[in-house]
Amino acid sequence: MTGGVAAGAVTAGTGAAADITAAARVVAASKVYGTGDAAVRALDAVTVGFPAGRFTAIMGPSGSGKSTLMHCAAGLDSLTSGAAYIGETELGALGDRQLTLLRRERVGFVFQSFNLVPTLTVAENITLPLDLAGRSPDAAWVDGLIDVVGLGGRLRHRPGELSGGQQQRVAVARALAGRPEVVFADEPTGNLDSHSGGEVLALLGRAVREMGGTVVMVTHDPSAAAHADEVVFLADGRLVDRMTGPTAGAVLDRMKAFDGRGGGGAQ
Ligand SMILES: Nc1ncnc2c1ncn2[C@@H]1O[C@H](COP(=O)(O)OP(=O)(O)OP(=O)(O)O)[C@@H](O)[C@H]1O
To answer: Where in this chain does the record put each ABC transporter domain (predicted)?
Structure first.
C-alpha cells in the first residue's frame, strides 16, 4: 500500500495510536456532491480509522461532513476518491449485491429515527437482520442483549406501543444481534429526551466495554460525545483533531474554537 498507511492500522490524525486494528477506516477519502458551480466538497482527503473495541464519536459543526463520513465508511454511500474499508475489505471493490451482504452481515446501524418495522414485534425486530441473512440467532447472545436493553417484558409489543427511548433501545439490540464488526450510529439520541438519550448512550458504551463491540457515532451533542472513548473532529470536510477520554466540557470548548475560526457554520 502507498502513502505510508499500513493495512489495518490506525495511523491518521493527530494523536492517533499507530498499529491499532481498525474495524473501519477511510483513506484519503473525498466526497463531492453535484458538479460544476453546484459542486460541494463534503469530505476533503480524510484519513481516519475507527479502532476495534472502541467507542468513537464524530463531531463537528453543521455541514462539516459527519454524516457523509459515516455513510461512506459504512458502505451506505460511495466516495468520489479514496478508499473505505470494513476490516480489510475495500468497499469500492464490491458490487451492489456484495455491499448489501456486507452491510447485512458485518455492520450494524442505529439511526436517529429508530427505523423499526411497525408491524413486527420487538422480538421480531431484534432478530430481523439475522432472519434476512438466513442466519439462526445465537439464542444466548440475543437473550443477553434483551436483558441488557431491559425490554424483556415488551418482546411481544409493537414499536408503536413503546416510548422513543425504548424503541431506540430495541434498535441498538437489533444492531448488535448479529455481533457485527462495527455499529454505526447516526445521531442516535437526536429524537430523545436527555434521560432516554443517556440510557441509549450508556447501552452503546456497554456494547463496547462489556460485549467487545465497536461503535462509531455521529453526534453534535458534546454530552453524547463524552460517552465515547475518543472524539474525532471534522471541520469543512477535513479531520482537524482527535480527543481521547473526552468530557462534555472539553468537547464543548473544542467546538467553540470552530466558531471563532468560522470552521463550518452554526448548528
Ligand atoms: N445529497 C447531497 N447533495 C448535495 N450536497 C450534500 C448532500 N448531502 C450533503 N451535502 C452537503 O455536504 C456537506 C456535508 O454534509 P453532511 O450532512 O455530511 O454534514 P453534517 O456534518 O453531518 O451536518 P449536520 O450536522 O447538519 O447533519 C454539506 O455542505 C451538505 O450541504
So the answer is: 24-261
Q: How many independent structural domains does the chain possess?
A: 1
The 10 Å Cβ neighbour count of residue 35 is 7
Does 113 sit in the ligand 1 pocket, CB within 6 Å? no
From the CB of 222, is ligand 1 less than 6 Å away?
A: no
CB atoms near residue 19 (< 10 Å): 9
3 state DSSP class of 32:
strand
- 178-188 tens-digit pLDDT: 999 999 999 99
Torsion of CA 229, 216, 88, 242, to 10 degrees: -50
104 within a domain of the structure (yes/no): yes
CATH number of the domain enclosing 237? 3.40.50.300
Q: Is residue 86 part of a domain?
A: no
What pLDDT is recorded for position 173? 94
Take residue 131 and report the three cell numbers written for it.
Answer: 432472519
Residue 122 buriedness (CB in 10 A; 0-12 / 13-18 / 19+) = buried
Asked if 128 contacts 175 with a C-beta cutoff of 8 angstroms, the reply is: no
Cα 67 to ligand 1 centre (Å): 7
State whether the beta carbon of 62 lies less than 6 angstroms from ligand 1: yes
**ipTM of the shown complex:** 0.97
